[in-house]
Amino acid sequence: MASLSTAIFQPSTSQHLVEKLNIPCRYYNVGLCRFGDNCRYLHVEESSSIPTPFENNNCDLSLASTSSSSSSTSTNFLNPQAPIFVPISMRESDSQPKTYADVVNANRPIDPIEWTPPVDDSLTLCPFLMKSGFCRYENCCYAHGEMCELCGKFCLDPLNSEQRKQHHSECIAAHEKEMELAFSIQRSKEKTCGICFDIVWEKDSREQRFGILPNCNHCFCLECIRTWRQAKQFDNKIIRSCPECRTCSDFVCPSSFWVDNPEEKQQLISKYKTALKEKDCKYFKKGAGTCPFGNKCFYRHCLPDGKTVDVGEPTRPIRLNSLGQLDTRLQSVLFWDFLEERIVTEDLFASDSDSDSSDFIFY
Amino acid sequence: MANMAVSRIKREFKEVLRSEEIAQCSIKLELVNDCFTELRGEIAGPPDTPYEFGTFLLEIHVPETYPFNPPKVKFLTKIWHPNISSVTGAICLDILKDNWAAAMTLRTVLLSLQALLASPEPDDPQDAVVASQYKENFEMFCRTAKHWTNSYAKGPHKFPDFDTKIQRLKDMGVSEFDARAALSRHNWDLNRATEQLFS
Q: Which residue range or ranges hold the C3H1-type domain (chain A) (predicted)?
């Protein structure tokens, strides 16, 4: 919101010549335009010199309105109170009548900062009061909204309880989100990595990420825990386990914030898994190769036409242990081995690794 | 040397200096050179063990890959212990080998070594002779260990009979350490020790 309001009130001076839109400035006419010569809209006296495409009287247009007051409009196209023009051809099909400006600027993209009046029957709230908190015009032609206690903006329509309710719930949701973020920051900013002993958020910007272990709550930075889990000189059992408590975890989940609450952690991990499922398996190669991990692979197995396929159980020869039982433990270790390796190789080639989505490129 | 190793050792060094164990004089850590790769550790013999009142010096070498690899540690002080070589001071302790974890520190290593002195593992020995003596003749092991602690680690327990036997071998031109080692290996049987030394 803050950026939007500055965009509206900062005159877009000097940097570039203002491209004039072929629309009369609605503020100029009520004496409120603060942009002066830099305004994108036309500063003309009402009903004087707006160019009209209707020079030719043979033009096949007629007035949509049937109100009696429209009788004078045939002589004055430019009356701002004029009813809306609708071409005959569109009158039946279009439920929404087009304004004069729409017709004139049919191909022009909609200006994002252009303020469009609400179409419903609620009051039009004063945009000055809403954005900046004061309105300097005594006889403001807009309704002055009431202040929302949460966001401090004058944006509550005094007559529309539905709008007030909706704004209130939006405000609460935004507030909750902010609080959550503040808590996450508070929780994360002092955390130290148990391997390098540095405060994770004080490391280089690229390394300011936590490596969350699913099965215990010990804190490491992503780089360190990955390096540890890559160590070749130790048994899998050793490097798969937490360097602090030796609890075994099958994978590391990258996160920008420290998470130790079980619910949030579960959420983070499932989000991570979902994101991985979006990536194509480099072994399956869209059907061209075979993935040794079969349907246990966490990456996507889909054909060039986008159809997902179930390739069945892993093809790796099933090993039996000394008792003749299936050695599933060994298999899973090999699978995680592969994942860990892929994580690192892909990380090296990941370009914008600071973006959120790139947190999810590896598994 | 890798950056991480240096910065970690610096932090750990401070941690050890601040730790309670320093206050209790049970462990000590000193720098040998300026680049934080060589350190000197010191642990006190744990109470109620043959090593009580002794102080044992350790040589610590920090590899470049620390903390992803364990520091190399060995005893500089001669010690009679099933898991420590009486000749070289090499230590058999899982955390210094394949059971290392990156979150361990020099402080935890020193404390683990102290714990190892308190509870030897004769079934996983570094020095097989000491280990078999520990298992077969525990009393003899305790006396020998106390004697070694007295001779090398400033322990208080003196054993005049042992000293006499060592002196006998020294008179024959054997060095004090060789004499002590040979006698210790043969449960202080002078004849067998002599036989081993001169065979």
A: 19-46, 120-147, 275-304
Q: Which residues of A touch B69 (CB under 8 A)?
A: 231, 233
In this structure, are B133 and B112 located in the same domain?
Answer: no
Contact check, Cβ <8 Å, B11/A197: yes
- Strand B55-61 to strand B72-75: parallel, antiparallel, or no bridges (unpaired)? antiparallel
Let me know whether B85 and B140 are in one domain. Answer: no
CATH classification at residue B8: 3.10.110.10
**Domain C-terminal end among B84, B118, B152:** B118
Chain A interface, best mutation among B3, B4, B13, B96, by max A CB count within 10 A? B4
Q: How many domains does chain B have?
A: 2
Secondary structure class of A339 (helix, strand, coil): helix
Residues of B in contact with A228 (CB under 8 A): 68, 102
Domain boundaries of chain A, sorted by first residue: 122-189, 192-276, 279-349
Cα gap A281→A276, rounded to integer Å: 9
CB contact under 8 A, A198 and B68: no
Cα separation, A78 vs A51, whole angstroms: 9
Task: Spell out the per-residue pLDDT of chain A, length 363, in tens.
Answer: 444 444 444 444 444 455 677 888 877 777 778 787 788 888 876 554 444 444 444 444 444 444 444 444 444 455 666 666 655 555 555 456 666 666 666 655 555 555 555 445 556 788 888 877 778 887 888 888 888 888 888 888 888 888 888 988 999 999 999 998 998 898 888 899 999 988 999 888 888 899 999 999 999 999 999 999 988 888 888 888 999 999 998 889 999 999 888 999 999 999 998 988 888 888 888 888 888 777 778 888 888 888 888 877 776 554 545 555 555 555 555 555 556 555 544 443 333 333 333 333 333
With beta carbons less than 8 A apart as the criterion, state whether A39 and A18 touch: yes
Q: What tokens does A277 get?
A: 């499922």
∠ CA A55-A30-A105, nearest 5°, is 35
Q: Report which of A51, A54, A97, A49 is spatially closest to residue A73, judged by C-alpha positions.
A: A54
CB-CB under 8 Å, B102 with A243: yes
Q: Measured between alpha carbons, how far is B155 from B52 in angstroms, rounded to an integer?
A: 7
- What ipTM was predicted for this assembly? 0.84
Same domain (yes/no): B98, B168: no
Mark whether B66 and B143 lie in a shared domain. Answer: no
Q: Establish, for the pair of chains A and B, how many residue pairs have beta carbons separated by less than 8 Å.
A: 40
B35 is catalytic: no
Domain contains B123? no
The answer to whether residues B168 and B73 touch, using CB atoms and an 8 Å cutoff, is no
Task: Tell me which of B63, B96, B118 is where a domain ends.
Answer: B118
Considering the domain architecture, whether residues B98 and B139 belong to the same structural domain is answered as: no
Note down the domain range covering B190: 128-198
